[in-house]
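Blinded run. Sample ID left blank on purpose so nobody reads anything into the name before looking at the predicted structure. Input follows.
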Amino acid sequence: MAPPQENRMINRKLTGGIRRRSLLAGVAALGAAGAMGAGTGCSRVDVSGATGGGHQLEDLRKKGTVRMGIASEPPYASINSKGELTGEAPAVAKTIFRRLGIKNFEPVPVEFGALVPGLHSFQYDVIVAGMFINKARCAAVLFSDPDYESKDAFLVLKGNPKNIHSYADIAKGNYRMGSGIGYAEIDYAVGNGVKKSTIQTYGDQIAGMEALEAGRIDVFAGTALTMIEALKTGAHPKVEMTAPFTPEVDGKPQRDGGGYGFRIGETKLRDAFNRELQKMKKSGELLRIARPYGFTKEFQTDLTAKELCKK
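Blinded prediction complete.
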């Protein structure tokens, strides 16, 4: 996401929406993809891309297996207690790859910040992690169109006693806001008049809920999908989430979306993937697959990778 989102950092917490929304992670990935030092066992990797659209699709069909790079972060992608690959992104990707003639799937779990370097060092064939699409990452990754659009939301005490529904409400009431370290929500709040000095940062949504219940903050701002996941624990019954919304700064909607990452130059594979994804969007199949993971109609999107790569 554009400059405000460039301030996001990588967080290893399970519920940290911060990770996929990080442009700093995207910038760091560019350097890592170019250097590829110790840890990958590779020298400098050429990311200039394949020629003629690439031949990865044909190779994967011959092998019959696609290796998926994931970062353990529900509801996007994770390995469950039974050792099974689960999440919205793998569920969608599996459906599409089967239709492309590839029937077997091998998850390769890595830290979120290692996803782009791992793609370029051929540890896996595609990033399947709900990764946010932005200009920095688009210089190193060939993205599919997004399969979901991110929305913001607030965690508040039950009944929303402060009646907070927007960043403007927080500014008007001079309320104490919490958010994650490096979250773009901080920039959205400041852009709507919230004083940065009144914003407290926490490691994740769980810590934010604890601060709410303790009365240290009046509201916690973050991404709706990660809040939905955090609330599933049921450990904080005094807290609820407001309706998801698209934040605005200076009257301009701040729209963001996540998709699947391929190596630069593999346009044949990316385009074939996109064609199947668009069919699923039009038929409603995408929503049916994504709904069990908390993705409702409001998270569906008409955004394209081309649009998001300009941000």
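Unblinding after everyone has recorded impressions. The domain at 57-149+256-303 is CATH 3.40.190.10 (D-Maltodextrin-Binding Protein; domain 2).
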